[in-house]
User: What shape does this take?
Amino acid sequence: MAKRTAKAKILSSETMYRGRVFGVQRDEIIEPNGARAIREIVTHPGSVVVLPVFDDGSILIIRQYRYAAGQFMWELVAGHREPDEDFRRGAARELQEETGFTARRFRKLLEVYPSPGLLSERMVIFLAEGLTKGEACPEDDEKIEARILTLREVERWIRGGKIRDAKTVSGLLYYAAFVRRKRYALRRPSQSL
Assistant: This one.
């Protein structure tokens, strides 16, 4: 069995396309298991995702048109990482740009790979708390609508198919299952039998 940290041996590599945010690369490799293969991958610098939670536990989500999906989608704040930008700084930048909010605290919740079979993008999902409203400054092509929902409403929207974006579903469900539940358990008074 191959080690978890094992890397493929690259025999040759060719950049097929280089764009503003991503590229396409064709590599001839030998995988850690010994298989020789040609892999075409989309290279990406990584993305930040922000789950803004207000003091009362409500959650800020946004809606915008996603051309690749051909529809408006409800999702968490997100964007690609700028060159030489760390993920946490990128999270603060995206939150302010897309919503106008700033946060006193950012905490990394998890990392996900949205499509590791063909995409190198790593998404780092942050919890943002201690929110203060400010002026949004979205990019020229971003028309964003923001909505504040309770966690119960968010879960209903996921079950009903209103929230279908993978990074949003995974971030929200992770928060509901592991972070929010843990906080609630810590606040509950102990009961004696």
In short: The CA atoms of residues 53 and 116 lie 29 Å apart. The helical segments are 87-99, 151-159, 166-187. The longest strand covers residues 102-112. Residues 184-193 have pLDDT under 50 and may be disordered.
